[in-house]
Fold this sequence. Notes:
The structure is a homodimer.
Chain A: H1 14-21, E1 25-29, H2 34-45, E2 49-54, E3 75-78, H3 86-90, E4 95-98, H4 105-110, H5 112-133, E5 138-143, H6 166-185, E6 189-194, E7 197-198, H7 212-221, E8 226-229, E9 235-236, E10 239-240, H8 241-252, E11 261-263, E12 270-271, H9 272-283, E13 287-290, H10 294-297, H11 309-315, H12 323-336
Helix pairs in contact in A: 2-8, 5-6, 7-9, 9-12
Amino acid sequence: xxxxxxxxxxxxxxxxxxxxxxxxxxxxxxxxxxxxxxxxxxxxxxxxxxxxxxxxxxxxxxxxxxxxxxxxxxxxxxxxxxxxxxxxxxxxxxxxxxxxxxxxxxxxxxxxxxxxxxxxxxxxxxxxxxxxxxxxxxxxxxxxxxxxxxxxxxxxxxxxxxxxxxxxxxxxxxxxxxxxxxxxxxxxxxxxxxxxxxxxxxxxxxxxxxxxxxxxxxxxxxxxxxxxxxxxxxxxxxxxxxxxxxxxxxxxxxxxxxxxxxxxxxxxxxxxxxxxxxxxxxxxxxxxxxxxxxxxxxxxxxxxxxxxxxxxxxxxxxxxxxxxxxxxxxxxxxxxxxxxxxxx
Amino acid sequence: xxxxxxxxxxxxxxxxxxxxxxxxxxxxxxxxxxxxxxxxxxxxxxxxxxxxxxxxxxxxxxxxxxxxxxxxxxxxxxxxxxxxxxxxxxxxxxxxxxxxxxxxxxxxxxxxxxxxxxxxxxxxxxxxxxxxxxxxxxxxxxxxxxxxxxxxxxxxxxxxxxxxxxxxxxxxxxxxxxxxxxxxxxxxxxxxxxxxxxxxxxxxxxxxxxxxxxxxxxxxxxxxxxxxxxxxxxxxxxxxxxxxxxxxxxxxxxxxxxxxxxxxxxxxxxxxxxxxxxxxxxxxxxxxxxxxxxxxxxxxxxxxxxxxxxxxxxxxxxxxxxxxxxxxxxxxxxxxxxxxxxxx
Lengths: 344, 344
């Protein structure tokens, strides 16, 4: 008989995931950042004991207000992972979730050394600490941006990396370190390649991120017209952060994914123009199409979307949050929390 | 009519190369190292004005004795490229030859941060300095080790990088920076992928290099048996440093190679066993076959040889130094110069 079914859970829950994390000691590196804090909040719901590490480095997206003052069953360490002492903080962790890094393409052009520090050196410090404490799993939140201009669509994990800027090179290097530590040292790392993650608690500050979704949302909240570069038909996989956390928890709850790399992806790539239209419709701002700025031309990648078949096969993961509802809920979050953009 | 022709020049000389470098200002980074000093000595012969930069970092293969006290028409700067001032030293250079880096696989395992410093951070400092002074060409001496275990033989430049250790990852990152600075900033970089370079002035110190040729030569000179790991049938391209310098000068003397990447290679890959036999025959030491050490198993890559078709097509380069004569001459060099190995 027909029933009014509730929408699917935005992330895998159910007994399996709850059992996998209830009472478990989980360390989240970059845990005051956008993706890291979402992971922490979800893990608390699941009953995990969470240790948060975040250096709160200027412009990296970490924000002390992303988490409550104290965690119910955990602790927050404001520590740069490059400093001594990380090993002691991580000791006993059963899962390490690594969201450390900086994601600004443009900043990597003006400050390539800073990008190297965040995306390469920090990763070695993390992996060296993990190697000594030997946790059962380390999940690395990487990016599909390492593919650069897609030679074929959808992009599978077999496509060679061909990043178009220093940030992409360094992000790939950090991901590769995770592969090498698995192959050489037996550290059980899993690598995820995220794609255009958006949602609550993402820094909207100018310069923190060049992500198209937060850039549009920031402008829309300020009542500024949304600027679409070029024809706006470049399509992307847009992923709600809840789905990203779902993927992280999914690979962290099985050992079968250890040593492997997985794309995230969507069922419907969205063009930049359609994305702008949706945000403009939700907020009432105007849109304008302008020529691609010269300084960004060399790093424009055209269409880019990924197959998530491998991840689905391994864990059952698929994206659950619809584009329209995800965007609407995200804008609603920022309206309730003007502190995320009023200063920016 | 038949004639007794002399053997071909070990590196491209002739009027074209002499004209390309006579009176030209060439900077050699890592110029007190093995490959760097060979480049400097050759450039002096060709009448270039050479600026040498070398940090003489412990264990990186740089040696003040690799060059004379003063250069006839140049200068030597003992400077770490990561320090300020590189731009001023390089100002006016018409060619920059970049041989900076550290090549020890094993050290990258025990000191991954040190490896990152040498192979990634140093490269960004070099490229940033080059970007500001805008030389007509920057040649980067990279390595075929980035390919890791060859998925097909011979390896062409189209084979994706798949390094097997941190050193390989970082070396690839440094190479990728050179590509990105070309694509994003228009800096005319050329990337070469060297393979098992050997010859005079290579450091034979334990720990400076894990290269199979210098390791065998060091043991042979000390009268120790040559240890071949495993069956010894793994084949490699062995390149004499004179041929490497030939390749560097060849790509530096045309703008057509700018922005591209080129393998070096040989006409006859040599097995590790045959290499050991040749060195043993030349020196009278014994050989022994031993099991592959556990700590090296994860970074053993099996057969690996490369196609140099692309480089030959672009510049006419091909290796000139024969294996047997190259090995004999190299051993002869070290016999005449015991200071290269008596301390080690």
